[in-house]
Amino acid sequence: MDTLVIERGGVGGQAGSTERIDNYPGFAEGISGAELADRMRQQAERFGVELLVAQTVASINPGPDSGGVRTVTTETGQEYRAPSLLLTPGTRYRRLNVPGEEDFIGAGVHFCATCDGPFYRDMETLVVGGGNSGVEEGLFLTRFASHVTVLEVGDRLRASQVLQDKAAAHPQMDIRLNTTVREFRGDGKLSSVLVEDLTTGRQEELHPAGVFVFIGLDPNTGFLSDTVELDPRGFIVTGSGPRSSQMETNRHGIFAAGDARAGSTKQVASAVGEGAAALIAIRAHMEDEIRNRGYRGDN
Ligand SMILES: Cc1cc2nc3c(=O)[nH]c(=O)nc-3n(C[C@H](O)[C@H](O)[C@H](O)COP(=O)(O)OP(=O)(O)OC[C@H]3O[C@@H](n4cnc5c(N)ncnc54)[C@H](O)[C@@H]3O)c2cc1C
Q1: Ligand 1: residues within 6 Å at CB?
Q2: Are 162 and 136 in contact (CB under 8 A)?
Q3: Would strands 173-176 and 124-128 be described as parallel, antiparallel, or unpaired?
Q4: In this predicted structure, what is the pLDDT of residue 243?
Q5: In whole angstroms, what is the distance from residue 193 CA to residue 260 CA?
Q6: Closest CA to 137 of 113, 161, 153, 160
Q7: Average pLDDT over residues 27-41
Q8: What is the Cα–Cα distance from 58 to 80, expressed in whole angstroms?
């Protein structure tokens, strides 16, 4: 098989920009996301995979459902054709959508602690979101910030117990439950954050130097529009087609894996595992194509 990977940024996705990955098999001491991504790149290149970076896929034309060629078009208008596609566009951070958020992005409001945390050395920071990402990134921020407060809208943290225990034991961290952000305020740069206690309705103005928002993820599936079946949140549905393997979309020959797939578990190990399972299904699909259509890679 000839394989082309099209990536709008750099190789590595979210894993590549994660400070440390402690739960990927084979790395007993953990590994930095950047190093893991680079090792994966080297391994893919060793097997002849072609990597096309800084190219965004704008649309796909799934072609006839009976098989044959599918076309991928990039934002620059370049077209690539293949008998089978594997969709792995991942996810992006969700916004709070409150007044001021958009105005202060990069000037006090951030979505990546690894990228922007070092700007807040010896300063107070606020993390919005008490899931795995929020608590993990909050713990990471304690390396720089003098204090980190994690706001969680629900009545308990949603992070894993291990992370909750680490946060509870950390002298520079505290957690505020049932609390949400109503507004970001400032003049050119963030100066305060209006928060509300949802149990009492009491509003309060906090003055962190920076705020990091980790409230969930939306799939990067806008470019698919209605070419493959998506669930109500926009994640790619697999395993529902008549001839479908578990990783195949409702379009025969088009597969999906990783965080953008509905029901995925949002971990590097599972994303890689899903990719491997999809590849085996793709190989079977290609063998069918060769048998039924005489496809040899030149049509
Ligand atoms: C802060 C943070 C910490 C994490 N920590 C861990 C951890 O410790 N352990 C763990 O197992 N997992 C962790 N994860 C989750 C892990 O990073 C993801 O599960 C994994 O990266 C998913 O891989 P993916 O390939 O499905 O998607 P992604 O990593 O999101 O990759 C998708 C790629 O597709 C590209 N793309 C999207 N749309 C297009 C387009 N139209 N054209 C071209 N390219 C496109 C994107 O640029 C991106 O590079 C963490 C995630 C975050 C955000």
Answers
A1: 6-9, 13-15, 18, 21-24, 56-57, 88-91, 133, 136-137, 220, 223, 258-259, 266-269, 271
A2: no
A3: unpaired
A4: 63
A5: 32
A6: 113
A7: 95
A8: 12
